[in-house]
Design a protein that fits this description.
four-stranded antiparallel beta sheet, mainly beta, 11 strands, globular, 0% helix
């Protein structure tokens, strides 16, 4: 079974930065797309950012210009650099990876942004 382990969450002040990591148990070359979702209490799980096997990226409008998704193929890890954090960024952040029609989810890492 594919394992995706997120780390890097925590408590930060508004305007601060945080980098999330998603370590995969298999080569990330095997995934068509990887990305980050987030879910706040009582809210739906929303797409934050994606990166394809070809290296193209996409971002939710709410994070565009503030967040950057990247990958380190040698470490089988995808990152989410979050800058200029806002209280509304508070959520559990989930790593996602898809190979063909199969998708895998990490357990999530909590990000709290205080005002």
């Amino acid at each position: 079974q594919v394992q995706l382990v997120e780390s890097g969450g925590g408590l930060v002040q508004a305007g601060g930065s945080l980098r999330l990591s998603c370590a995969a148990s298999v080569s990330i070359f095997s995934f068509n797309v990887m990305g980050w979702y987030r879910q706040a209490p009582e809210k739906r799980r929303d797409l934050v950012a994606t990166i394809t096997s070809g290296g193209s990226t996409d971002y939710a409008d709410s994070v565009k210009g503030r967040f950057t998704i990247s990958r380190d193929n040698a470490k089988d890890t995808v990152y989410l650099q979050m800058n200029s954090l806002k209280p509304e960024d508070t959520a559990v952040y989930y790593c996602y990876a898809q190979r063909s029609l199969k998708g895998s989810w990490g357990q999530g890492t909590q990000v709290n942004v205080s005002s």
